[in-house]
Amino acid sequence: MNPLALSLILTTLLAGTLITMMSSHWLTAWMGLEMNMLTMIPILMKTTNPRSTEAATKYFMTQAMASMMLMMALTINLMYSGQWSITKMTNPVASNMALMALMTKLGSAPFHFWVPEVTQGVELTPGMILLTWQKLAPLSLLYQMATYTNTNLIYLSGLLSILIGGWGGLNQTQLRKILAYSSISHMGWMLIILPFNPTLTLLNLTIYIMLTLSIFMILTNTFTTSMSSLTLMWNKTPAMTIMLMTTLLSLGGLPPLSGFMPKWLMIHELTKNNSIIMPLTMAIMALLNMYFYMRLIYYSSLTILPSTNNMKMTWRFTNTKHTMTLPTLITLSNMLLPLTPMISMLE
Amino acid sequence: MMYIVFIMSVLYVVGFIGFSSKPSPVYGGMSLVVSGGLGCGIIMGSGGSFLGLVVFLVYLGGMMVVFGYTIAMATEEYPETWGSNVVVLGAFLVGLLMEVFMIMWLFSGEHELVGFYFGGLEDLMVLGEEGFEYVREDYSGGASLYSYGFWFLAMAGWMLFVSIFIAIEVTRKRY
């Protein structure tokens, strides 16, 4: 894309999320969400094939519908309470409708159907922006308004997200769809802890963004988008193959890596509140995610599939892609667990 | 007066059903014009005479005119209307039926009527609640957009500019 147009669009994307996160008035929050949606469209359509056009259209349709529902919830709230503040949506119709609209924007079940299709239809970099940056604005609104919503709806959607994120990713061979289902599953974890301790939602969001950014950057550097290309990664960059292994284990929530920190603290918080069956179900369903990450690790790092001899001795060309932030992100996404007492910083 | 606003609201929804049943854009545009005019009437009947006229001027007189011209350039030989295709006619009739059911439900029970209060003094005192206010809300709202709401205006103008960029970027030639 023309650099001037790209800089304009990225500036407006940043501005949209920041306006939503900084606002206390519902109208400016809605305005920031619309800015996000509109400027995401040309980013998703950067490549010129019909598949990405279809993905951008699906993204626009679902997000526009969610924005419409959010606007209706806001006006119902205005009609019954006469004010526009985000934290005091006392009318249940308004708050539950806004909750459903924000869940559609995040891509949690049962409104998750657009996430795998849109993520698969676009390149890796727009997919990365879609799954990380676009979660910030709706979650910041949910963080503020969740106290007045029906918490049964939040638990149902969260549990369903974990189930669908686990089971949906089992049959996938394309890495972007696997990461989309992983995103749905992590959104489920973030939603469930929201009525109990919203700080842990923010912690999970931070660690999830670091992990997803690391994985997407590793995949972008080695040009792998499917499991069959993963099997050839050991020859091109053995170091990144090992890093992919540890980062995927962290994404699955295995101790002693940093992905374990949010899951551990969430299960701790849920059991402190006398809820046993729900964290048990969540932890067991996280194993489904762990299964397909293990499958990726097996095919990339733990085995070398049969190939001809000249494929085992490829010429190493210089890497033309930026790896600027990747070492920092990989270190953060693997080794943050000893810093767990620092979460009081997020309060 | 509230009766007039209510009837205009019902016809507004019927106009929306008219283009949501997806005839050709020629007829959809006509339905949009009807809905836009009725929406303007709703705003004016609820006391916002300035903003109603702004709707007429900008929406119908600006955007619908441009829309109409572009449709006229891109139209086909036999445009699909509500009577030509049984799918479009069926969708229109289903929507109409749903609207009738909703009005029947609205007037059926003893629940509170949401948003409509028949029997108020809207004809005589146009600002809704009882008390006569010295400030017209719609005029002062439009004026405060330029004074207190300067950043709203800046953001709205910025987004219009970016929307044109996005529309051009999306409709560029893609090989």
Q: What does this protein look like?
A:
Chain B: It is an enzyme of class 7 (translocase). The complex is a heterodimer of chains A (347) and B (175). By secondary structure, chain A is mainly α. Chain A has one domain. Chain A is built from 16 helices and no strands. Chain A has helices spanning 3-22, 26-44, 50-81, 92-106, 114-121, 124-132, 136-145, 151-168, 175-192, 198-222, 227-230, 233-236, 238-252, 260-272, 277-302, 326-335. The longest helix of chain A is centred in the N-terminal third of the chain and has 32 residues, at 50-81. The two termini of chain A are 40 Å apart. Chain B is flat, with a radius of gyration of 20 Å. Chain B is mainly α. Chain B is built from six helices and no strands. Chain B is 67% helix and 0% strand. Chain A binds chain B through residues 1, 5, 8-9, 12, 19, 28, 31, 34-35, 38-39, 41-42, 45, 48, 53, 56, 79, and chain B through 114-115, 152, 155, 158-159, 162-163, 165-166, 169-170, 174-175.
Keywords:
heterodimer, A: 347 residues, mainly alpha, 16 helices, 0% strand, B: 175 residues, Four Helix Bundle (Hemerythrin (Met), subunit A), 2 domains, 6 helices
Q: What are the SSEs and their pairings?
A:
The complex is a heterodimer of chains A (347) and B (175).
Chain A: H1 3-22, H2 26-44, H3 50-81, H4 92-106, H5 114-121, H6 124-132, H7 136-145, H8 151-168, H9 175-192, H10 198-222, H11 227-230, H12 233-236, H13 238-252, H14 260-272, H15 277-302, H16 326-335
Helix pairs in contact in A: 1-2, 1-7, 2-3, 3-4, 3-5, 4-7, 5-9, 6-10, 8-9, 8-15, 9-10, 9-15, 10-13, 10-14, 10-16, 13-15, 14-15
Chain B: H1 2-20, H2 25-45, H3 49-73, H4 86-106, H5 137-146, H6 150-170
